[in-house]
Structure prediction request, 51 residues.
Amino acid sequence: MDEIKTLLVDFFPQAKHFGIILIKAIVVFCVGFYFSFFLRNKTMKLFIQKG
Prediction:
């Protein structure tokens, strides 16, 4: 298994780098999405309470 992994890394060093970037992008997107969703709910509740 390790031989295959080293072969792939030797052939596609940028593929490994791209995978890491992709994972980071997905995590940032998910966190941002849930954070904005949470903030929108909080602000809506505040506006409803004030109104």
